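RESIDUES AND SHAPES:
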Amino acid sequence: MKHLFSLMLLFHIQLLAKNTYLDNHSCKECHENIYEEYQSSMHAKSYFNDELHRKVADAASKTTYACARCHMPMADNLQDLISGKARPDKTNKTHTDAISCYFCHTIAYVKKAHRFNINAKARQAENYKPTFYGRLDNPDESDKHSSVSNPIYAKHVCMGCHSHKRNENNVTIFQAMDEKQNSLGCIKCHMPEVEGGAEKMDKRARGHHASHRFLGIHDKAYRKTGVDIGIDVNKEKLKIILTNKMEHPLIIQPARAKFLKVQIIRNGKVIWKNYKKDPREDRQGYFAYSFKKDGKKIIVPATATEGSVHNLAAKEKKVLQYHIPLLQKGDEVRVALYVQLAKSDCARVIELQDKNLLKPSLIKKEIFRL
């Protein structure tokens, strides 16, 4: 009986080793600060708690979940999700962990491809603890995983999911990076060094680590840093100079819109503005993707046959010109840049419970006083 129990235990250990997956919460034991940072990030958002993503994915297809490649990459039935043999399962930890710690730290290399890049996962040997990759020199070991410094984490790791995406009709529906770029720019801006070691004990007294909040457009303070707004007035001509300081375009995701709200204030009243009701009236100041299928406008780009984007490219400076009333002393020109996480068109095809997704959020505001 004892021998039989030993055989059963050995079989169970081998089975677990073969299907090793360390969920996000298991990382908290040693990496408490990083875990808390990650939990506040968009990487922790899954199909189940990111309403906009879920509604767009379902509008694209009720059967397949092709988005799983990047939004549910550790799914233990990934190919079934992509092919439509399975649907996202709220009881499956490899589904609810979203873009998990385990996934990001077991990418061996990134394969560049025309439609979208592919993250090649490291093969984990049976009966051995998994190996996690990162950028640290001489990284610490733990009882849960081995640690190795991999140059991919300084060069290409972000390009697996954040580079580009084209649909089956070869229409670009997402573009953040080009082939000449690498991940160093992404890491510098979105993962700045913060106080505290990478692990709770900080055995090697590093004293700092790369933030895993993955700062972005959802952070009020951070989004102010990406664009500069200049204002120049000459008689009845107004020039607004937009400078994109980021290493990626102003607009990346097809669901979003960014737009200018320009007002001239005289004695506390608005005497001129760049649009009456809808920011789309000002074509030069409205930045967004647009798509068509067989000549007809569509919102969800999965089946688009045409696509275009009004954008501000990486590091680009653009001058927008307006004809305005002749200004008087004491007048103010107010220029504000806003982001709409779900542009108004989205409301026509997907019903969003969270109305804040449709509500514009301020990116940056500048005031010129005469």
About this structure: The chain is about 20% helix and 30% strand. The first strand starts at residue 107 and ends at 111. Residues 1-18 have pLDDT under 50 and may be disordered. The chain has two domains: 2-45+98-210, 222-369.
